[in-house]
Amino acid sequence: MTTVQDIIAQLDLTPATTATPFHLRAGDIGMTVLCPQPLRTELTDYFAETLSDTAGQITVHLLPDQTLPNEPDWVEWARDAGKMGRKDAVADIDGARMIKKVRSGVTFVQSPEVAIAFGPLNENVSTVINFINTQILSTCLRDGWQLCHAAAIAGPTRSLAISGLSGGGKSTSVLKMMEHPDSRFVSNDRLLVRDGTPAQALGIPKHPRINPGTILGNPRLHAMLTPARRAELEAMPADDLWTLEDKYDLFIADIYGPNRMQLAAPLTDFWVLNWSRTATTPTTVTEVNLDRRPDLLSAIMKSPGAFHQHADGRFEPNGNTPTAAPFLDALRNVRVSEVSGRVDFDALSEIGRRLLDG
Predict the structure, then answer these.
(1) Which helix (H) or strand (E) holds 76?
(2) Residues 112 and 105 sit within 8 Å (Cβ to Cβ)
(3) Phi–psi pair at 323, nearest 5 degrees
(4) Which UniProt keywords apply (predicted)?
């Protein structure tokens, strides 16, 4: 069987190992990234809020524009329910897994000892950022954390995570609550949670990627659009705007000022968006027993994906889905509530701001 050493032997690590490293920290997780310019500058600008002076326990090698002379036999990776088209392919080798992004050709080698990305990295920086953050996710998952599909914000006395179906409004809700001057951004889409008294939450160092509807609904964000693009979007039917996928990167420091990110926080509250744009009743937030609401739990649970290797060495099986029990345990000391009624971001953000103040 092909080994990870066989793959590494086909790559030239020199451009990474001779470059000046940079270091990141999220909670207790530290990471060292080795990559050449100009990618290094682009990444250090992106991760400016979480740069560290201390080398981490994880090392990532980034090798732009390299390819393998001999490709492995790829197997298509099953996507989450409701997702269409091929996205990832995998090839398991001795002690490691290779993952390839089908559309871009960016390829990864993943094991507890090795994390390498190669291919057209300069043209796919978002993919590289996701790979770096995946190392944090996998390390925490092996240490007993659970991965939630949630945005999160921390306030002076309480903190709040928000889940919902994709496009349900969790990013818009959290960014509106960032108007609270003492709030801190924790996560936009991936949140790690661990049981405790209180429970603990950990975000990953990733800035929000938001759709035009989120931008139009928040005056603070309007400058992210050109006047022409804004006028074009404002003329769209509301239903079309709600479903439009056209991602923009929002850098927290640029919009809200410095020191507004806080990746680690105690977790006190968790909301699940189950509201409707066609409802006529007011927006309400009602505490629920999550053990009795598997429909809401399904919106919270997130599969770790193809990159994750378990503590016993097994890689996440293709098509595997999370089980409820670990998430219920992790959220046992968190107040979980259902958001129902009509979609009203102003009303919800006001409830959220009051919650964050305790």
Answers:
(1) strand 75-76
(2) no
(3) -105, 155
(4) Kinase, Transferase
Whether 130 and 194 map to the same domain: the answer is no
Provide DSSP, 147-214. Answer: EE-EEEEE-SS-EEEEE-STTSSHHHHHHHHTTSTT-EEEESS-EEEE-SSSEEEEE-S---EE-HHH
Q: In this structure, are 16 and 69 located in the same domain? A: yes
Both 61 and 155 in one domain: the answer is: no
The residue behind tokens 């931008």 is 215
Element (H or E) spanning 353, and its range? helix 345-356
Phi, psi of 77 (to 5 degrees): -90, 130
Cβ-based neighbours of 167, under 8 Å, separated by 6 or more? 211, 242, 243
pLDDT in tens, the chain (358 residues): 788 888 999 999 999 999 999 999 998 999 999 999 999 999 999 999 999 999 999 999 999 999 999 889 999 998 765 555 568 999 999 889 999 999 999 999 998 889 999 999 999 999 999 999 999 999 999 999 999 999 999 999 999 999 996 568 999 999 999 999 999 999 999 999 999 999 999 999 999 999 998 999 899 999 999 999 999 999 999 888 888 888 999 999 999 999 999 999 999 999 999 999 899 999 999 999 999 999 999 999 999 999 998 888 889 998 888 999 999 999 999 999 999 999 999 999 999 999 998 8
Phi then psi for 257, rounded to 5 degrees? 100, 175
Torsional class of 169: left (φ above 0), alpha (ψ -120 to 50), beta (otherwise): left
